[in-house]
Design brief:
398 residues; Aldehyde Dehydrogenase, Chain A, domain 2; 3 domains; seven-stranded mixed sheet; three-stranded mixed sheet; 12 helices; oxidoreductase; Aldehyde dehydrogenase
Length: 398
C-alpha cells in the first residue's frame, strides 16, 4: 500500500491526519493520503501566490512549453496512470486511458493558444492597446450544491471563479431514426463512466412512433454490456466510485420502486454492498415528468426513457429543469435537428453526435449548471483580466 504526501513549495510534507483510499471494485484499502491542517493550507497558498508572480510574467511561449512537457510526461506514463485511475475510481482501464488521452489533448490544445496584444486604436497622437494578464481563479468542477458554497466563500474577497456544475442533460430522438442503429451511441452517451459524468445524457426523449422499438433495442444492447472490476479488460462498466454515491443511486431506484415506476431493465440492488459498489444498468420506462429520476441528477447507472409526440412539447420538457449543461438531438432530418437544438437551453448542444467537450470550443453551463467556461480560447480568457494601455505619442512635457 502506498503512503502519499503533500507537495508544498516543492517539498514532500506529511500530516498527522490521513484518509484511506478505497478501491470501489473490492472495498480494499489501496493507499493512505494526508489531510492538510490549516497551517499547511496557508503555507501552500502562500507558496502558490509567490510562484504566481514569476509564472504569470513569463512569456506565453515559455508557459506553453511547460504544458507541452506535462502532456508528454502523462503520455509516457499512461500505462501506470490508468492503473491508478482504475484502482481509485473504479472506471475501466479503457475509460481511464480515454480520460488520460483527453487530458493530454487538452494540455496540448491549450498550449497552442495565444492571446496577443490588440491595437484598438492608433493615429499620429494616440495608441490604445488591449492585453490579457493572468489572474488567480478558483476553478471548480462538482455538484451545483457545492458550487454554490464555493461561490459564497469566494464572494468575500471578490475572487474570480469558474464553476462547471451538475446537469440533467436531455437527448431528443426524432421519429426518423433507426432504433437498432442509434442505440449503441445513445447507450454510451448515457452510461459513459457508468453514468458518473456531468455531461452524460440523463434523460432520453424518444418519439412515440418508435418508442417501444427503441426501448426494446436499448435494453437488448444494455444486456450485452459487462459490468465488473475495471481492472478486468473484458469489463465495459465498473462500479460506482464511493459509498455515498452508491447510496444516492440506490435512493433513486428505491424512489422509482416506491412510486410504481416500471423498470425495463435492472432496478434490483443491495442497499449494503460488501464486495464492491456495483449497480446494474437500470432503465426506467416512461416515468412521469415530476418524478425524482426525471428531475434530479443521480450520477450513476440509472436512466429514464421518456415518450414525446409534439416538437414544441419535447422542447418545453427538455428545458423544464434548473440545469443547462449540455444536450443532444438525433435525427435524419437535419433541418429539424438544428431547429430543435437552437431552442434548447444548454451550454453545448450536440447534433447527431455525442462530444460536448472539445479542446477547441468553450464548454460551460447555463442556468444552475455553472458560471464561465473552460476549453478553447474563451476558456483561456476566463483565466485573465483585460488591461488597457494608452500611449500619448506627443505629450506636452516632451
Amino acid at each position: 500500500m502506498v503512503d502519499y504526501t503533500h507537495i508544498i513549495n516543492g517539498k514532500a510534507v506529511t500530516s498527522l491526519k490521513k484518509m484511506s483510499v478505497i478501491n470501489p471494485a473490492n472495498m480494499q484499502r489501496i493507499a493512505e493520503v494526508p489531510l492538510a491542517n490549516k497551517d499547511q493550507l496557508d503555507e501552500a497558498v502562500a507558496a502558490a501566490r509567490t510562484a504566481f508572480y514569476s509564472w504569470s510574467t513569463k512569456p506565453q511561449e515559455d508557459r506553453a512549453a511547460v504544458l507541452f512537457k506535462i502532456a508528454s510526461v502523462i503520455e509516457d506514463n499512461i500505462k501506470e496512470y490508468k492503473q491508478l485511475l482504475t484502482s481509485e475510481q473504479g472506471k475501466t482501464l479503457a475509460n481511464a486511458e480515454f480520460e488520460l488521452g483527453a487530458c493530454i489533448a487538452a494540455l496540448r490544445g491549450t498550449a497552442e493558444l495565444r492571446l496577443p496584444d490588440k491595437v484598438l486604436f492608433e493615429d499620429d497622437e494616440l495608441k490604445i492597446l488591449e492585453r490579457r494578464v493572468p489572474i488567480g481563479v478558483i476553478s471548480f468542477t462538482g455538484s451545483t450544491e457545492t458550487g454554490k458554497k464555493v461561490m459564497a466563500g469566494a464572494s468575500a474577497g471578490l475572487k474570480r471563479l469558474t464553476l462547471e456544475l451538475g446537469g440533467k442533460d436531455p437527448a431528443i430522438v426524432l421519429p426518423d431514426v433507426d432504433p437498432s442503429k442509434i442505440t449503441p451511441e445513445l447507450f454510451w452517451a448515457a452510461f459513459i463512466n457508468n453514468g458518473q459524468t456531468c455531461f452524460a445524457a440523463k434523460r432520453i426523449y424518444v418519439h412515440e412512433k418508435i418508442y417501444d422499438e427503441f426501448r426494446d433495442q436499448f435494453v437488448k444492447f444494455a444486456k450485452t454490456i459487462k459490468t465488473g472490476d475495471g481492472m478486468d479488460p473484458s469489463s465495459q462498466l465498473g462500479p460506482v466510485q464511493n459509498v455515498l454515491q452508491y447510496k444516492r443511486v440506490v435512493s433513486f431506484i428505491e424512489d422509482s420502486r416506491a412510486n410504481n415506476h416500471t423498470f425495463a431493465l435492472g432496478g434490483v440492488v443491495s442497499p449494503d454492498p460488501t464486495n464492491g459498489l456495483f449497480i446494474p444498468v437500470s432503465i426506467v420506462d416512461n416515468p412521469p415528468d415530476h418524478s425524482k429520476i426525471v428531475r434530479e441528477e443521480p450520477f450513476g447507472p440509472i436512466l429514464p426513457l421518456l415518450k414525446w409526440s409534439e416538437e414544441a412539447e419535447v422542447i418545453r420538457r427538455a428545458n423544464d429543469t434548473e440545469y443547462g449543461l449540455s444536450a443532444s438531438v438525433w435525427g435524419k432530418d437535419t433541418e429539424a435537428v438544428e431547429r430543435i437544438a437552437r431552442q434548447i437551453q444548454a451550454g453545448t448542444v450536440c447534433m447527431n453526435e455525442f462530444n460536448p467537450i472539445d479542446r477547441y470550443s468553450a464548454f460551460g453551463g447555463h442556468k444552475q449548471s455553472g458560471l464561465g467556461v473552460e476549453n478553447g480560447i474563451h476558456g483561456l480568457l476566463s483565466f485573465t483580466n483585460i488591461q488597457s494601455l494608452t500611449l500619448k505619442k506627443k505629450p506636452g512635457f516632451l
